[in-house]
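Researcher: Here's the sequence for the chain we discussed earlier.
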Amino acid sequence: MEKTKEDLIAELNHDDESQRLYAVEDIYDSKQNELAVDLVKRLKIESSKAVKNSIVQVLQKMEYEKVYGEIFELFPDEDPFLRNSAVTIFASYGEDAVVFLSSYIDHSNKEVRKLILDSLVEMANGSNHTRSSSLEILRACLHDPEINVVITAVEYLGKLNDQNSVHDIVELFLKKDEPMLRSSILDSLQKIGDKEEIGKVIGSLMNDEILSNSLYTPQIIRLLAISGKTDELLKVIEEMPDIAQYTSDIIFSLDHLVRNDSLAPEIVVSTIEKFSNLNLSEETKFISVKLLHMAGTSNSLGIIKEWANTGSEEFKQFCNEVLAESK
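Model: Thanks. This is the structure I predict for it:
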């Protein structure tokens, strides 16, 4: 006998946990989407982790426009599980949910606005139309009055590789001096910036500022390489007061330039020589050995020989294999 709506709601609120678990699945199987509202209501008071997770999973699969408001009410809740669940549920929905969330993008609560962005960035991975709508809202948030919302928008636009937002993001960097915002912009430009736009950012910073503000230095080093500004990069490296802090960033930059045929072998070797005696991470040393091997000079092989007796067995073996190939 098919269970009535009243039966399903009663079982959803049963004292027995197993009964509630069965009820969640039965509600989904019943195809009565209007019961999604009752699932959200139960989620707010549910104590069982298993039941809560089951409710979230079912709500992800039964998109029902009239439940959007109930889910949205979870955003300002004090319980982080409920807030995160709202993001997870909305993230599985489509264009109608994007439109719904866009109507609240000016919400008075800055944390709610940020959670809307968290949802939209996941929704952008859906259909092309959903992605387009989500990106449009994220771009609008670059002008939000709350700095943390702007930072989140910058980070997500970079993550989503949104080339159309590059100009506005660079304009933000040129107009704002908030350190964390500028730092997030520099991170995103590593993913989506073109040479011209990156050049505007670098041009706005004097070399002494690059060197004196350690917050930006790692990102500037990488951006100089990405934008092909080899001479400027080498000058910054040469004038660094404490090169040890930035070895992984320098190696990233050297690797990028070598792969783009923008750096002579002898410069690669002389740059690595500056910090070859420092306590480098093994990941940095692995990449360094590859670059030194490609350079193929006597000096580069000398550094590899020195390193061949250091580090893990895997690293030692790698060095010796490279040296054997070079004979």
